[in-house]
Amino acid sequence: MSNVPVDNGRRRFLTAATSVVGGVGVVGWAVPFIGSWNPSERAKAAGAPVEVNVGKIEKGQMIRAEWRGKPVYIVRRTEKMLAELKLADVTDQLRDPNSEEAQQPSYATNFNRSIKAELWVGLGVCTHLGCAPTYEKDTMGERVKALDNGFFCPCHGSTYDLSGRVFQGVPAPLNLMVPEHSYISGDRIIIGVGPDASGGKA
User: Fold this and answer.
1) Range of the domain at 90
2) For the chain, how many structural domains are there in total?
C-alpha cells in the first residue's frame, strides 16, 4: 500500500477542468447542430419560406425582409395612406389600377393588394430593370399629383403608390410583385407560403 498522501485540491482542480472542457465540447457540438435546424443561406435563396414579426411595425413605417435573395417591403399603412389609394386623382394616373396583370396571388387581387388592408407586403424590385425603389413617406407629392406616399425608383424614375401600383408615363411596365404570404398569428407572417398551404388566417 502506498503512503503517498492524496492531494484533494489537485483532484478537485482536475475534476473541474475536465468538466469545463467537456462542457465547452458539448456547446461546440450543440450550436452548429441547433443552427442546422434553420434554413441555410442556400435554402433561403432557393425560396425557403421566411417568417417575419410584424407586430412592432408602427403606423406609417416600412421594414425590409429578404426572400429568395430579393428585398421584401412590409408597410403598415395609416388610414390617410389607405384613403389616398382611393382618390380619383391618383387612380386615374395608374397604369393598372385594378391589378389585372398577374403580379399578385388571387387573395391579394383587391384594391389594397393585400390580405389585411393596413399591411402591404411586396417585392422591393422595380419591374423595369430590377432596381430597389425607395419608400417616399410624405414626400411623394413632388412627383405625383395628390399623392403624399409611395415608392420611387431612383434608377429611371418609375413611381408606384403604396399598393405597389405603377403610374403611367414611367419606364416600369407592371405593378410591383406581391409574393405568396400568410399570417401565422396576428404578429407574424410567413413569406413564400399562401393561406391555403399554411392554414394561416387572413
Assistant:
1) 42-198
2) 2
